[in-house]
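Before we proceed, please read the two lines closing this message. Tell me what the token row says about the fold.
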Amino acid sequence: MRVLCLTLCLALLAGCARGPRIDTQHQAIGQSSRVQYIILHYTSTGLARSLRLLTQGDVSSHYLIGDAPATIYRLVDEDRRAWHVGDSQWRGRTWLNASTIGIELVNHGYAEGPDGRTWEAYPPAQIDALIALLKDIMQRHDLAPGSILGHSDVAPQRKVDPGPLFPWRRLAEAGLVPWPDAQAVARQQALFASNLPSVAWFQAQLARQGYEVPSHGELDEATRNVLAAFQMKYRAARYDGAPDAETAALLLVLNSQF
């Protein structure tokens, strides 16, 4: 009898350890991936320290891509939240850790010198690895072009990564991000050269892109930071945060095409 009681108790305990029995035969049609965006970063340091910071501290990311060789490391499962983006916003969504996949690229970012900032370029093999990873993630989560953002897009008041040397155009050529038609931009730029839109117009167009930007019509520091983030992505040759004809043309064409 004691043996029988012990056996029953062990069976009950084993059942409790496994948790409740759940029937998974029925799956709802009304569902989608929790992942809405992919956020790109640079690490500001080398591989060894990047791995240590992203695995041993409070900061983390789903993936890290080395520079030489361009090894892809998965540090956090995609179904879990990584702590990579902080205070952020895009298209009204805030605190984007919960709805994004974070990818860190080993890159030192910039160094301050007597002639200003010197930025570190991204090795072609590292970008090749990134593109392959992005295509895989976007297919699995059914993400549309335009779902890939820079840290500077979602936190333009405090972040500049992945920086002006990040090759957004290569991602566009791979079909991963929208890119404005060059001829359409040239035509619009000629029109805007003699009649530059107001600051309020720029703010409205940046908001249509998805940026969190003031709407008061004044060219304050916050607005300039958002303009600079947009320029860094689509016109990296000059990202001074000043409203000009080319930036206006880029915004209008992008918002019209996409």
